[in-house]
Specification:
The chain has about 450 residues and is an alpha+beta fold. The protein has 2 domains: about 220 residues, PmbA/TldD superfamily (PmbA/TldD fold, 2-Layer Sandwich), CATH 3.30.2290; about 230 residues, no CATH class. It is built from 10 helices and 26 strands. The strands form 5 sheets. Strands 8, 15, 16, 17, 18, 19, 20, 21 and 26 form a 9-stranded mixed sheet that branches. Strands 1, 2, 3, 4, 5, 6 and 7 form a 7-stranded mixed sheet that branches. Strands 11-10-9-14-25-22 form a 6-stranded mixed sheet, with helices on one face. It is globular. The model has no long low-confidence stretch (mean pLDDT about 95).
Length: about 450
């Protein structure tokens, strides 16, 4: 990308001419494609590209930010960002000290997924849609495919000059079945760090998904109450991301007095077997990268270690203000937004318990898998499982209609009494925060067992 590199070099030279505690610039060139089906019909298909950047300045604790779609505006926007920062700044500025970096990070893939012809992608999705519609009692279906390839340059007044490339692929399918007044649905989500092969050869899984939506129509509903619940890696990963991970984002903690008192480092949140990690260093995952959008190297951060809260996620500003080490978790979905504190790949570290041993002593419980969605409010959560089964006398028994799990995240963490040895990462979703969505992340866990979990039902 010679044009962007030329502009970046010119911006780096301009930084020295301006008075600000800190200035940074992001330049970005990206392309993407999408295909969407609703029911039997192709709803939309297309390909797009964009180019642009932003300037961010820091003065006396205040930020100025301006984005642009024309690269020739980049240098003129430096002064505007500084003026904005001067208006916002009212106190001594604090940013964690990070050594300048000069580096180039390739995408790590052999083929840009955006370059694959739309006709080839459509042919594959037509096959998937045909499989879904071979299922009886189907009311409708939804298929959403997206891919992207991004080249970016980050430069700052400290001397960093970082070029990074990354790709992304996502596919989500939903089958909705109906019988009279009964309606049920099943979902399948797949994602990868730009590897199109990951969404190929899914014909069997998609047939099973559609069939499952119909099976749910005749499944019984669990009797509501407290049960011992076993979560599969997908649902456990969503739980740890949504219910706990967001509470570990330090901008939220720093700005909320009640959460600062709850999220006190050293506080015990679970047994010694419980370890929760956020790491952008895991190879090949959608939330992975080498440097965040402030040029800070990615880290592996223990949030909970042996049951105790030991860390949280930081930008350079929150790191300095809270007196903790930078973690490299400042991220933005594109040049149109400033970076904010975000998760990367968040997961529960594997334990030692085999799945059959985990359920062996459960007389009556619930096995919950996959997910539909959920809500969180401070430490309270509600999640809908996409699939559920009764556990009876140590064995997986009858299929249930999807169940709703709810409770207090801190009580629930303490009630986790067994952690499996079978870590799996879910890459099919995206994270939303501060009007920036969907940000590529992944989450995961081994199977986990929770005592006294509230399950909504009949």
């Amino acid at each position: 990308m010679p044009e962007i590199e030329d502009i970046a070099s010119r911006i780096a030279g301009e930084f020295k001419k301006h008075k600000a505690e800190y200035i940074e610039a992001h330049l970005e060139q990206s392309s993407s494609s999408h295909i969407a089906y609703r029911g039997r019909k192709l709803e939309s298909i297309g390909k797009s590209s964009s180019i642009g950047g932003n300037i961010r300045a820091y003065v006396k604790g205040g930020w100025g930010f301006t984005s642009f779609n024309k690269l020739d505006e980049a240098i003129s926007r430096i002064e505007l960002a500084i003026e904005q920062a001067q208006l916002a700044g009212r106190e001594e500025g604090k940013l964690a000290v990070v050594p300048p970096v000069i580096d180039k990070v390739p995408s790590g893939i052999d083929r840009n997924p955006v370059d694959i012809p739309l006709s080839a992608k459509k042919q594959l999705l037509d096959e998937y849609n045909d499989i879904i519609w071979q299922t009886p009692k189907l009311q409708t279906s939804v298929i959403g495919y997206g891919d992207g390839y991004k080249k970016s340059i980050f430069i700052n007044s400290s001397g960093s000059f970082i070029k990074q490339e990354r790709a992304d692929v996502t596919l989500r399918l939903t089958a909705v079945a109906t019988d009279g007044n009964e309606v049920q649905q099943a979902n399948l989500s797949i994602g990868s760090r730009g590897d199109f092969n990951q969404i190929q050869n899914l014909h069997r899984q998609i047939a099973e998904m559609a069939k499952h939506s119909v099976e749910l129509l005749s499944a019984p509903q669990v009797k509501g109450g407290e049960y011992t619940v076993v979560l599969d890696p997908v649902l456990a990963g969503v739980f740890v991301h949504e219910a706990f991970g967001h509470l570990s984002e330090s901008d939220f903690v720093y700005e909320n007095e009640s959460m600062r008192q709850i999220m006190t480092l050293g506080k015990e949140f679970g047994g010694r077997h419980l370890n929760i990690i956020d790491s952008a260093l895991v190879p090949g995952l959608r939330g992975s990268y080498k440097y965040d959008d402030e040029g800070v190297p990615a880290t592996k951060t223990y949030l909970i270690h042996e049951g105790k809260l030991v860390g949280r996620l930081h930008s350079r500003e929150t790191s300095a203000r809270m007196g903790e080490k930078p973690t490299g978790n400042a991220r933005a979905i594109s040049y149109r937004y400033p970076p904010i504190v975000r998760m990367t790949n968040t997961y529960i570290e594997p334990g030692t318990v085999a799945f059959n041993d985990m359920i062996a002593d459960i007389k009556e419980g619930v096995y919950a898998k996959n997910w539909y969605g959920g809500t969180t409010s401070m430490e309270m959560f509600t999640f809908s499982a996409g699939e559920a089964y009764m556990i009876r006398n140590g064995k997986i028994a009858e299929l249930l209609r999807p169940v709703v799990l709810s409770g207090n995240v801190f009580t629930t963490l303490k009630n986790i009494d067994a952690i499996g040895n079978d870590l799996d990462m879910n890459q099919g979703g995206g994270c939303g925060k501060g009007e920036q969505s969907p940000l590529p992340v992944s989450n995961g866990s081994p199977h986990i067992r929770i005592r006294r979990c509230l399950v909504g039902g009949a």
